[in-house]
Amino acid sequence: MLLRDIAHTRTGDKGNRSTLSVIAYDPKNYERLEKFVTPEIVLAHFEGIVGGPIERYSLPQLGALNFVMHNALGGGVTRSLALDAHGKCLSAKLLDLVIE
Amino acid sequence: MTRLPNPNILRLGAGAGYAGDRIPPAVALAEKGQLDYLIFECLAERTIALAQLEKLKNPQSGFDPLLRARMKAVLPACLANGTRIITNMGAANPLQAGREVLAVAKELGIDQLKVAVVLGDDVLSLLQANYLSEHLIDSNQTVADIQPQLVSANAYLGAEALLPALQTEAQVIVCGRVADPALFLAPLMHHFQWQADDWPLLGKGVMVGHLLECAAQITGGYFADPGYKDVPNLAQLGFPLAEVNAQGDAVITKLTDAGGCVTVQTCTEQLLYEIENPAQYFQPDVVADFSQVQLLQVGPDRVQATGAGGSPRTETLKVTVGYRDGFVGEGQMSYAGPGAQARGQLALDLVKARLAAAGLGHFEARYDLIGINAIFGNAPINPGHGHAPAEPEEIRVRVAIRVQTQAQAQEVANEVEALYTNGPAGGGGATKSVREVIAAASMLMPRGVIQTQTVLLDSSTGDV
Questions:
Q1: pTM of the model
Q2: Best mutation target, A49, A78, A98, A99, to test chain B (most B CBs within 10 A)
Q3: Among A99, B178, B203, B441, which residue's beta carbon has the most beta carbons within 10 A?
Q4: Pick from B196, B116, B179: which is nearest to B455 by CA?
Q5: Which CATH architecture best describes the domain A3-94?
Q6: pLDDT reported for residue B379
Q7: Please, which residues 38-57 of chain A have a Cβ atom closer than 8 Å to chain B?
């Protein structure tokens, strides 16, 4: 199954860091998110984009995880030469993650 | 529309979530939202620096370019309904913005208007005088290192700075840099007499502000994903409003006839938007704690938000420093049909070789194939799926280079356009651009050295 089948995501930017929320549609899938969507898995998924490290915060009452991805935005929105300097599109990339 | 104000509930509406935001949803809220306050948040990180450059060219400018249009659109309804307006559209020139609001009112035939202008966020001279040796956050540089390129320095003021303005009779309150959530926290503190050291309450007010500050991002904007997250009537997307009680509990909702939706899902996405550690959201007035927030659907397009907390504010305020950081030259060109990707790659290789021979010295560069790797670079495609996507029918070449001078940036842009007659077959649709980079950095300043001030402008006395 893909992450997209059980969760939705949104990214935001803070300097050269990208924040990424992963939210279960159904709270009963939260444990699955916590088990499979680890910082290591996310870093591997964003290989070549996010330098890392990645921190993860848990919000079980919201069925949500919040990731802070360091060295993710080509030096930061105001300096980056990237087409998507804010990393707005990164949220969709994670939806393609295969989980069990 | 007449209404009976309910002193136990404050109704706050979001009129804009960024500088270029749409105006009709704000008008709808002004007319039908029965609002106590309509709040326009229009400043991104670099906005003030860019506005400061405008002000250097023309001392009568430097405020939000849509200020006049927005005020013209919402002032009549807001005044008729007793709705006060709060906005950071003052940008680099809040005083002139205040005068502009009075001028718009006059054009509308409104002869009784008071505008309170909040000053003090501009700390550029203070920075130059006393803080050159301070380090920039997340950087090896000090302020002194970028001093020659400095454009602006603005402290993130808190709700506290807005309270004196709210205590006047002003119907419109204009400021420059104030922390986004503080624009919403301030009227809550003012109305419910929340104390400036009641940290849990301030944390709840910050939560309300954070949920509303991006306007439509909580009513179904930036949310739709067909087949997965469908949003009704997105074309007529409405802006949000919050009903907040004295305990800081809030219901987020929208006008019933506006498009969009307010659900636990939209609210969760916005609650965590641009948040790092949810237990420590640093704000000028409080360190807010969103880690225990509960969201509950209590009706159609009505979500109750409770459980935020807070701990004491820090002794420093964040200051955003804007500085000139070279120029970017960019060019794009499309290739399509069989071999599009190979021709696009050849185009990139040609531009790279020509720029290397152009004597530009060291420069940062980015060579993208839009449709292939411009967004996600060379990150693994569909990890776990085990199949590669088919070659695209169309791709677009993009070259972006950061250089020191405008002339060099122009040369870069021209090299891409020159692919027309000097590049692979079948390139079309060239575009090029040159822009000066205004970068933003952050530093901390002791809050005690930053003095704020309220200036009251009154149309009836001509005191402008």
A1: 0.96
A2: A78
A3: B178
A4: B116
A5: 2-Layer Sandwich (3.30)
A6: 82
A7: 44-49, 55, 57
